[in-house]
Amino acid sequence: MRWAGNPVGEGFKTGVLTPTIEDWRVMVDVIMIDTHYDGEIFKIAYSDAPVKKDDLVIGHYELDSSGPATTVAVKIIDVLGEELIVAETV
């Protein structure tokens, strides 16, 4: 499974000012992946949290999906503490 999405993309609403963000990763604190998401409990199998303040998340992940079908969930936490979970069966 590949995920290289842009969480600051379509449907993003702004107030009076329209932000100009050249790299969406500056808005993300951490990305976590659950490779066997059951829809209720998020169990972190992979975490991408930059060590230094100036570092960015990788934003591109490849995971082995050679086993039986499973639901993979990606949790994104932005710099404001907002969370987004996207799940897909692969």
Give a written overview of the molecule.
This protein has one domain (22-89). It has no helices and 6 strands. It has strands at 2-3, 28-34, 46-48, 61-62, 71-78, 83-89. A hairpin with a 4-residue loop joins strand 5 and strand 6.
SSE layout and pairings?
Layout: E1 2-3, E2 28-34, E3 46-48, E4 61-62, E5 71-78, E6 83-89
Antiparallel strand pairs: 1-4, 2-3, 2-5, 5-6
Taking all residues together, what is the mean pLDDT?
A: 87
- Order of helix and strand elements from N to C terminus: EEEEEE
Strand content: 25-35%
Quote the distance from N terminus to C terminus: 7 Å
The major beta sheet can be summarized as: 4 strands, antiparallel
Helix content: under 10%
Indicate the low-confidence ranges by residue numbers. Answer: none
Number of strands: 6
Counting H and I runs of at least 4 residues, what is the number of helices? 0
Provide the number of structural domains: 1
Which term fits the overall shape? elongated
Q: What structural class should be given to the helix and strand makeup?
A: mainly beta
Radius of gyration using CA atoms only: 14 Å
* Strand order in the sheet with the most strands: 3-2-5-6
